[in-house]
Amino acid sequence: MTSNSNPDGTPVARDHAKSRFATLTFERDVGVPLSVLWQVWTDPAARAVWAAPTPSVTVEFLEADTRVGGREVSLCKVEGQPNIRCECGWLEVQPALRSVNYEVVSAGGVIQSAALVTADFSGTDERSRLVVTVQLSSLAEDMAAGYRQGFGAGLDNLAGAAKRTMVLQRLIQAPRSLVWGTWMNPETLPQWWGPDGFSCRTARIDLRSGGEWVFDMIAPDGTVFPNHHVYTEVRPEERIAYTLLWGENGPKHADAWASFEDQDGATKVTLGMVFSAEAEFQEAKGFGAEELGQQTLGKLERFVKSR
User: Fold this and answer.
1) In this structure, which topology does domain 18-163 adopt according to CATH?
2) Any bridge partners for residue 84, and if so which?
3) 117-160: per-residue pLDDT in tens?
4) Of 189, 222, 232, 253, which cross-links 244 as Cys (Cβ 3.0–4.6 Å)?
5) Do the beta carbons of residue 161 and residue 39 sit within 8 Å?
6) 83-111 burial, b for 16+ CB within 10 Å, e for fewer?
């Protein structure tokens, strides 16, 4: 409790504790399927794309594990200012329905705020709705204004990223270890990668975090498409994340990921890509990239079943 003075000089009590607690609500309607919005919200590779609220902020992810009991640790960096550390812990994850996580923000080793973040999802195959509720406790100072600005800008970025994201899924009737081993094997990956009729010509391949795959995809008519995949995360039998470049060290094309989930002995494979620009996404959709991607996953399934 602190005191200010009335005009007559008598003290007025004011409870600063009230200003340290706030409940903030953010809503976004996005013209994408619910499955896409959920992936963009939860997948670490996608979260890294939209997390920075403004171009002046760089977000470095130190850990990223979006599942119950997992946590996400990141550093927000602004030139000339101390780094801000954010730790998120996932408490509830119901696919395409709800997620709940705690969030602790600190600077210089001092905790600035703690929050409980609840995200509720609804929608259809064409449009989705996201409602985020933040129950905030400001410990060092009143953080509500900063949260409103930061969360608001981040969710605007998320909506923009969702509009240029492609998500493909396939249930493969084979154990996850076999599907993973077929994907993350330098001998077998080039044998099935690509749509029907395409083949791969590999220059270099190193399927580790920090590794790369430099290769040409060759179409049935002989057209050559140079590719360069740079692997940023490899979590055995769970997920990989990589950057797609147009040819060796060429322009960035997309941020991509593949996740592998066990479902009663079968394996659910999710392949996601956040294109660098919405125009590239629309162009890819225009030439049938979704169908071509499903052909690629179909080749993976046939290859796995043949082993």
Assistant:
1) Alpha-D-Glucose-1,6-Bisphosphate; Chain A, domain 4 (3.30.530)
2) 76, 107
3) 999 999 998 999 999 999 999 998 889 999 999 999 999 999 99
4) 253
5) no
6) ebbbbbbbeebeebeebbbebbbbeeeee
AA letter at 216: D
Tokens for 36? 């896409």
DSSP 6: -
Listed in sequence order, the residues at least 6 apart from 204 whose beta carbon sits closer than 8 Å to its beta carbon are 212, 213, 214
Short-list 137, 120, 99, CA closest to 29 = 120
In this prediction the pTM is 0.90
List, as one string, the DSSP characters of 178-197.
HHHHHHT-TTTHHHH-SSTT
Query: Do 18-163 and 167-305 have matching folds?
Result: yes
Residues 6+ apart with CB under 8 A from 110: 140
pLDDT beneath 70: ranges in the chain: 1-19
Nearest CA among 210, 209, 207 for reference residue 193 = 207
